[in-house]
Input
Amino acid sequence: MRVLVVPLAVVLVLSGCSGEQAQPKKPAGGPAALADAVLQKVRAAGTAHVEVSADGQQATGDLCTDTATPTVRLSFIGSKPLQVVVRDGATFVRTEGEEIEPGKPWAKLSRAGLAALGDAGKLYTGLLDVIDKALREVTIETGLASVRNGVFDGPPAGEQTGEQVGGVTARRYSGTGSDPLGGAKVSWSLWVGPDGLPVRHEVRNGASSSSVLYTGWGAPVTVTPPDPGLVASLLPPN
Output
């Protein structure tokens, strides 16, 4: 069995529309009201395309926002591009150009399965930790947590005309809050389009930063797991 090549730069802190319409005002209920209003729109939209930049690394993908469990397809960009598919609680990964077993480039990761591998499963466990952290951010609900528990830093920017982000005239809200994953203080900015959907979300914590650009809200998205014949078994032989 070949070990899946994991790009060293995969560690992402991922924290997931146009027109000249009137821009949303600062919610009277503060950041919590803003986060709740945006999340309601996100769930109703159902799908989105995301472009992620975090500490010099990049990923692109599609996600469904109306499913009970995370449904995401991500491609981490690097010298060894890593593809991730998450559907119905299962996580599948592959490194482009690599095979774990002949003809089987995909691996299915689970906590129980990796525990059965002992020391051989530690690399995959670390990778699954990274993926789980990324999912908590890119699925938006957790990504908005720093907004929900934060405070505004001044009035929304672009009070009259908004700001152009990704071809969309959006209102920027900024503030400070705490990282839901670690509790550290963070600064955040959230750009909201005229339809109430997020256009960009940025989080900064000292020298670390992440940015997610959202496009294609509501566009058709299909996230399917790989064919079972292409998935290698990571369980030790009997």
Q: What stands out?
A: DSSP finds four helices and 13 strands in the chain.
